[in-house]
Predict the structure.
Amino acid sequence: MSAGLRTKRVVLVFPRVMPPGPSARQWDLLPLSVLSLASPLLEAGYEVTLIDQRVDDGWRGALESVLNAGDVACVGVSAMTGYPIAGALDASRLAKEASPATPVVWGGVHPSLLAEQTLASPLVDLVVRGEGEASFLALVRALEAGGARALDRVPGLSRVEGARVVHVPPAEPLGLDALPAPAYGLVDVGRYLNAPFAASGSRPLAFATSRGCPFRCRYCYNLAFNRGRWRGMSADRVQREAARLVAEHGVDGLFLLDDNFFANPRRVREICDLLVREGPAVRFLNANCRVDSIDSFSAEDLARLREAGFDELFVGVESGSDRVLAHVGKGTAVEQTLRANRELEAAGIVPVYSFMVGMPGETREDMEATLALMVRLRDDHPAAVVNALNIYSPFPGTPLYDEAVSLGMPEPATLRDWAEVDYVRVNYAAGFSAGDLAFMRKASLLSAVVDDKLGAAAGRDGFARRAYCASVRWRVRHRLHAFTPELGWLERRRESAVAGASPRT
């Protein structure tokens, strides 16, 4: 990077999150992480160009064009563990080829947790760890000023100096009410009115009201990235932002990206009261919730949630085995899940359930228990959406990742290796026999057709789909799923790298 650089332009890149395919479009959620970074830059007078690989087939030409025009302070690249790293590397390589002197800066969960390994790539110059609204603006100003001394004052910055990596301590995270709204003006919002699992014809827009989670699940990135802390917008700010988004963009739903929307029950009640009293009248999708949170709410609380627009909750069940739930630190029990499911059915609220298999210490019996629980939840609450099993993805910096490594899982050595981690590939195989791995594959495929509401997983004809899914549930109930001649067919029908990502029909 050149000292004394003077510029007024920053490029932000959001990578593709899954391979191209028929189901990829529903994952084109509003890129809130980079839009949130952009707002302080715009307020400070910088120009910002946003490149979104998911919605712009010509992103390469767009990136080359802005770099060739010159006066670019840096290229900021967002990166999450798994497939997004492939797109982030593609953008970084192109940036280096088009403008070698322009610094490439990575931020997001993955480089925050593995800053040194990220900086080992010749395509990455700097890493901003943790939340970047304040740090990234400070970095851009430091790049304009030039010199290592200016960089050493950027909170959360990691960089290579000679043979060592220098880490600047991070700043304390800001309160969310103090942050400006994301820079929606940088994108065509109409291209992002969709969401996973949303009903056909709906127009939901992504929205985040909180960050982090106070719980201690041993597989979750929050333990390292947010250090087990949770922060939320005030109820008043949530209501005002929701009303503004509905009024300005004409959306009929808000797809929540909170890690745990229900971490503060009092705030949830305040939000519901404001929404019922003042609006907007809009559906809230993907409100991330734990079964013990549901279990703690009264029937009146659940009725108020539904009245406020929370008629659908996203619930991470993870396992049907109490032993596994205890081992991974979930802090819930199967009986709580069954009870919460009945309470939601009585309240007229649709749960969207998610599950995992392939975790260290799990047995085939545990996996069978999870399949059985999926069917039981669907039986007890026919409107519930029971998504397919995800395969455990080892997030660096988490206790379960360290356990998997200690048991023989090879650690990805480069960014390119990390791009191979996904939800449908077995990522931790060291602790499983060949028979266990074969059953895991079978369970993953069968679980995608437990619920006939996930129509694209098992054909489009309504009656045939329902009949086939009912036969799968019958086999799971009676543990007759050893007879699965259709496995090859199911594997061919899997449309994407994310299990169970088919929209409801």
User: Anything to note?
Assistant: Residues 1-5, 495-505 have pLDDT under 50 and may be disordered.
